[in-house]
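Annotators were shown the component list below and the corresponding predicted structure, then asked to write short factual statements about the assembly.
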Amino acid sequence: MAKRSAPEVNAGSMADIAFLLLIFFLVTTTIETDSGISRKLPPIEDNQEDVVIKQKNIFTVLLNGKDQLLVEDELMELEDLRSEAVKFLDNGGDGTCNYCSGAKDPTSSDNPDKAIISLKNDRETTYGVYISVQNELVAAYSELRNRRALQIGSSKGFPNMNFSDMENNYNNVNWSGNKTKLKEVIEQIKIEYPQKLSEVQ
Amino acid sequence: MSKFKKKTGGELPAISTASLPDIVFMLLFFFMVATVMRDTTLKIENVLPSADQVEKLGKKDLIMYIYAGKPSKNYVQQYGTEARIQLNDKFAEVRDIAAFVASERASKREELVPFLITALKVDKKANMGIVGDIKQELRKVNALKINYTTRQGDVSTNF
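Structure shown to annotators:
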């Protein structure tokens, strides 16, 4: 009798098995990274000195336990908060801020460097509402920074680039522009519109 | 004489699928490598609020996660409906945060410790009391860089 060779294993179902595994890993994969609003907490200091700040330089935002928004002691809707904050920060009441385009109202903030937004919340405030308010306040700052970036960007060699584009480009390894110069512009804008957001505990 | 008969009809030969497993395996390996399995099981409800002024969080190994929210259905009997903190896989109290931060710091290389960021993943229906307590505790242990993790979206969905 002739020697029989071992029959070949049918590999037709190999693809099915591989597909099964593939679909499993496709479903469980999470490639995206988390994103969110970054903040820095104030350190605890032992000897707290009282800093005297003029009342007109403080923009008080209060969120009460019923999720109502009180801005400068008046009720306000969340939609109006951003424009009010911009108005306050960009006021330039003492005239030292030559890039501000605000109303120069002497009863509002002196200049963006002195303007402070104070955010206070109750224990009963809902976290979602608090994040919305934080978001609007951050948006007010970035609106001003974006505007400023468009103003000075073209003279520094970065035309048609707003502040967030600048930061994205700075962090982008593939971007081919002059990064040291861009860093200077970013720093300058950050000094011109500093984010002074204080949270009351 | 069929052996020498010319094949009739111009049928196309079937495309060989022998390389299909190879292609699929290639994809499979890609996804196996790219997969990050969820490392903590959430015992709380965790619907993040939405925001549009967000920054991306970079290196995943430099982030410590603190979760907070209402205990999920299975745990309501045991833990009630008030928002709770979850660290790693278990419910925790506010005072446990200091120990948690210390152990996270100890597990990282020393030169990376100053770059650690605390990501607060808090349910949007939780109240600020618990968030304030967490923040106060983080200030005590000098973990000052925090990030309120949110989803990308419109703020009006937070109500």
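Statements collected:
1. The first strand of chain A starts at residue 35 and ends at 40.
2. The longest helix of chain A spans residues 127-153.
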